[in-house]
Amino acid sequence: MVTINERIETDSMGEMSVPADAYYGAQTARAVENFPISGIRKHSMLIKALGMIKRAAAESNMELGLLTKKTGNAIVKAAQEVIDGKLDEHFVLDVFQTGSGTSTNMNANEVIANRANEILGVKKGDKSGVHPNDHVNMGQSSNDVYPTALHVSAMLAIESTLLPGLKSLEKALSSKAKQFDKIVKIGRTHLQDATPIRLGQEFSGYASMITHSIKRVGYAKEELSELAIGGTAVGTGINTHPRFGRLMARRLSKMAKAKFREADNHFEAQGSKDSIVAASGVLKAIAVSLMKIANDIRWLGSGPRCGIGEIFIPPVQPGSSIMPGKVNPVIPEAVCQVAAQVVGNDLTITIGGQFGNFELNVMMPVKGHNLLQSIDLIGNSSQVFADKCIKGIKADKKRCEDMIEKSLAMCTSLAPEIGYDSAAKIAKEAYETGKTVREVALEKEVLPADKLNDLLDPWSMTEPRAKK
């Protein structure tokens, strides 16, 4: 018995009860019952991309003379509401579902069809008006729509979240590199004292890592610029117009303000999702960079009295429930956790990429979820890292300079003058006696005092210098 809060819709398998106020229909309702798995719904950017695809399809099919203006314009209006986020609550499906994303494609088709019917004065569920398959999905298949939605949504997220975050972090690190350029400190390799380095040089390395990361995002965008749309079921383009893919790429480029093109080979675009795997690889590389930078910042700021303590990290919250006054490097720790999650996401995407069975990859929903999550995590954490940590870092100049003189690696600059073995003996004696390299070298009179002091000038060790 149907209640006042329900309506009956039908699909090829029969009748299904649907909430009366829902814009989705029977196929979506079946999928809701079939996949009560994680409670994680589709990313809002993926829903927006689906709205763009359905709008572009209606406009293209009208241009090709395949769809009436009345029906097409109603679809365009409904799809625009999806793009604007007004119908997000009606995209109810779990991330873990059919590997092609067919359920989500039909969710979009049904929502847009029912909303378009409502615009035309037709009641929800009446397919005699706008039909979800015949009209909204005209010239398309889930098998080319879903991979296209992945590419479009990823491109949107890259531009709105990832690149702004990375650029903010790059700017903050570059600023600190300039600010700290006059501060000389000890370098470290293998966690052991090495030759002097300027704190600004150290930070310039971090800034360059992010500069390279931004450049790598360009490679990912190039991979994502090819769209599968136009290939329909298996890449042959059955049931679509030969010009459809090109028209779609042109319209989606305009909507998303990005450069898209129809795939050079539809069989590759649908049988594999190597482009998603490649884009995820770029995100993994960025995550590795963030892990290194955040971890270095943690160590450099360790202390405040019994650690390295060469920098002061901005205190943002109390660090302990039992130790009063303790402040922890919580922002770098959060960034490290993000990096770990992104690396894990990449593994899932890599495994998913191996499931390109014949003419279709069947792990697209989980790959898309992980890719979009990684983009968000890196973009948002980079912004937080820049704003709440990097911009507020201060240097402890005195501590940096005090530790240099104690380093045994100071003997490195003596090796070209007195030989490696002699310099090593000085370092060993300095270690055993607790004296500095300078003190032992002066006692042994290995070089005139002025020459020795010139060679042991920490600043001179931070740049290449020709032998006099």
Describe what this molecule looks like in 3D.
With 468 residues, the protein is mainly α. The protein folds into 3 domains: 22-138, Fumarase C, Chain B, domain 1, CATH 1.10.275.10; 144-397, Fumarase/aspartase (Central domain) (Fumarase C, Chain A, domain 2, Up-down Bundle), CATH 1.20.200.10; 407-462, Orthogonal Bundle (Ribonucleotide Reductase Protein R1, domain 1), CATH 1.10.40.30. It is 57% helix and 8% strand. The chain has 17 helices and 10 strands. It has helices at 26-34, 44-63, 69-83, 102-119, 132-136, 142-179, 199-224, 244-256, 266-271, 274-300, 330-353, 364-388, 397-406, 415-418, 420-433, 437-444, 449-455, and strands at residues 6-11, 14-19, 184-189, 192-198, 226-227, 261-262, 311-312, 356-357, 360-361, 394-395. The strands form 5 sheets. The chain has a two-stranded antiparallel sheet with strand order 1-2. Strands 3-4 form a two-stranded antiparallel ribbon. It has a two-stranded parallel ribbon with strand order 5-6. A hairpin with a 2-residue loop joins β1 and β2. α2 (44-63) packs across α6 (142-179) and α4 crosses α6. The model has no long low-confidence stretch (mean pLDDT 96).
Précis, in short:
The protein has 468 residues and is mainly α.
Write out key terms for the chains shown.
two-stranded antiparallel sheet; Ribonucleotide Reductase Protein R1, domain 1; 10 strands; 468 residues; mainly alpha; Fumarase C, Chain A, domain 2; Fumarase C, Chain B, domain 1; elongated
